[in-house]
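Morning, I've got a small favour to ask if you have a moment. Here's the protein in full, and shout if anything looks odd to you:
***
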Amino acid sequence: MHVAHQADELDIAVGSLDDPSAVAPGFHIYMSHAPDWLRPLDGLPTFDELRPATRGLPEGKTTLPG
C-alpha cells in the first residue's frame, strides 16, 4: 500500500506474504480500531493510531490530516 504522508515508502501487509513469520513486527498501530479480544501479548509497543514521530506527519501528530 502506498500512502501520501510517506510518499517514498511502500507498505506490505504481512498477511499477503507466503511466510508471514519471516518478518518480525516492531510495534502495533491503530489499536483503537481493534476488537476488544485482539490484544497483542508479545510485549511490543502499541499505539491507538499511528506512532508519534511517524515519518511524513507533522511533529506530535498521530492521525492523518483530513
Notes: The chain has a mean pLDDT of 83. Residues 3 and 66 are 14 Å apart (CA to CA). The radius of gyration is 13 Å.
